[in-house]
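Pilot study result, target chain (472 residues):
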Amino acid sequence: MTKDVIALTQRMPDPWTMLAGLLSGGPDKLMDTAGEGAVVRLCDGEGRPLVSVEAPLLVQVAGEAERLLGATPPPVPYWWTEARATTGVEEAERLAGTFAARLATLAGGSAWPPEAARSLAVVKTDGVSVAPTPAAAQPAVDVLTDKVAVVIQDRPVVAMTAWLSDAFRTAANAELGLQIVTPAGTTLSPAVRDSLSSWPSRWVVRDERDGYYDGLSGAVLRWQEGMFAPVAAADASADDPRTPVAAAYQEATATGERQLAVTFRAVHPADDRLVLGGALESIWRELTGEPPAGWGTAEPANLPWSPRQLTDLAYERAPEPTWSVVVGTPDRPGLATVRISRTQAGVEEHTTLTFGYGTDEEPPVDTLPRAAELLATRHHLQSMLVQLRKARRDLAVPPRFEGPGVPLAFVLGAEEVRQMPDDRARRTPLSQPPVALGPKTRPALYYPLPGDPSDLSGWQDFERLMRHLKGE
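Predicted structure:
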């Protein structure tokens, strides 16, 4: 049974509507707040949370409920109100469902998942008690040890929601890993996958045959010494500490769908007139013919795309970094994560951008040189890597093997070319010479990497190029 229930409503849940929802457990339920008032919690008799309710979010971007929930929301703009029940307490899950059902009825809309929100009646929770602190003190965390925080998710797509982002941040501040446990049918948003790269954080998939396995590597896992960790294979040794790979992870099927992934870094001089997000919008327009559809500091992306608003937010948060997610339209799946930080070099934008293509669609690889030139000449590009990979059009990350991308091109910014000694940037070991972008007196360089997408030969060319540029 799901632990999360979401109300998607035409109107903002006003205070009376929220009160009607919060009375789902009767008038004698305890209530408190967290997150500086952004989270309201219904608690048991000892003050421990049964259900945590996020503040309603106005979603102004089409396609987000469909992408993340597989649900049909009201027309944009609509309100997204999320309730999370304490894991393993049936009454808490029913309480969250009744809360969402009441909001959907009073504010006009629907609840997800439909089967969790069928009743408007008061849920009897007399005598119900939940896990003691510290686990229950952090609503997003189901298990807490001295090594990891564990969250359990049963959603079609595990997205970088506001509470999951807070869980990542809280775990990092406590020097803990974050481990996300899901059933086998769940996928990840690329934004979540990219945040699970540091050990011992991992995606833990429940599996009928092998128990648990890592959804990104396939390693069979067991709960041991306070966290999920790989199981040693029967023939493992100190010199070869191999681990078995789950059978389900290896059951990948070729669909013919592909993804074009672009990772780039731009460094801007610190200036009061600086507007961020221009590099991302330029390459997005070049590759799709239109700008991004929306953005936000969590998923669902709820705001219409606006470089000015992104810049204002980064300015307000400085010197702390700003992380944001940017999405495309439903008919052209695209997702980017942007991390903005202030450094001694200036204002840095680290962007990872991915577009999905079906079997009858061709990625626009011919436009890559033009896109790179726009970034190099107008947006202070430092470096860029472009890859093509066999992966899902909808960009969701499945708990199955997906091969690595094949490098198609690498770009070195004009300043980096200028600083490289002995004209090294122009003299490469590759069969094709680099293409100069921008002014002849101060060009950036575009390195074609003619790797075959059906094998990994492109990585060999890329590694040779990197060693050469480093002077090795």
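One observation from the pilot: The mean pLDDT is 87. A full batch analysis is planned for the follow-on phase.
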